[in-house]
Amino acid sequence: MRPSETAASRYGLQPQPPSEPSPPLKPDPGVTSAKEAEFCRKYKDNWSVIVKEKWQRRLDHLRRELVDLRERQSQDLGAMFGDPSLNCRFEDREGRVQPLYHYQQRDGQTYLTCVLCGVTVTGKRNLDIHISGKKHRFALAEVKVIEAGVPGQEEALPAEPAIQRLLDDFRDAPLIGIEYLVEIVEGDRGELGKPSYRCELSSTVLKEADDVVPYLVSANHRLNYLKRFYPTAYKKFSKGTVPKVESWNSKTFQFLESVIMRIENKNGRLRPQVVASDATYQKTRANIRRKIETGQHFRQTSDQDFASLPDPFGNSED
Ligand SMILES: [Zn+2]
Fold this sequence. Notes:
- By secondary structure, the chain is an alpha+beta fold.
- It folds into two domains: 26-59 and 158-294, no CATH class; 77-146, no CATH class.
- The chain has eleven helices and eleven strands.
- The relative contact order is 0.16.
- Zinc ion binds next to helix 5.
């Protein structure tokens, strides 16, 4: 079985020391100028195409996954039979995540189904026999198993953020700082599978998937990342004060993008965080932020420090 982190450890449900208050959230400021809007238009359009094509299918998938999960949690076979491994899930070939085992009580009999093998037995002892058998072990080796957390402490969370595969499909522009993106699975009004987003780099609210890429490619987001992790490059764009993005011409946006592209070419992309609901987000935001901050980021290194980057404003006619 492939070990993986549990929801409890992922979202800081274990006791944590008190931390600094999180900064207030603000709405997505959008583009800073007509020049930036022009620069981003192509990306925005191409992202909309991806969202239109794929989002509904991802959401349907997410909804099914969450319904399955909640059903399994209401069963909590791990607690029922004193065996936490009964709460494991697996990802099938179509990428659908399902509980490994299913329980039913009928005519005074306990029926346990191994969903993976499609085998139903009566009683836990017979399930144990099935689990230790060859057929089951071979089938298990073929799928990705997602281990369960502490019984009763796990929140229904999808195996990956719904937006992940759409982001994977977006290759028109480099995306940096994805690790600061938080997917809140349940919509603001509690709708199942209508995710909204937050960027913890700048405490920004992104209402829906459509807003995510336009935000990630914005100069402000990119500069915020450089400011934190690539200070040498940042200084060149900010000229020692604050960057005046609103007066940039298209060459400066392109130049910034070439820097981000070099970072992505060297490091790849990181992945968004995922949290079950807005209520959980509010309650555990400090923990989520701490997890992001102590997690992986790309950084200026001696072989990529941008010290020899020319002045982005050296040739300022547009
Ligand atoms: Zn089986």
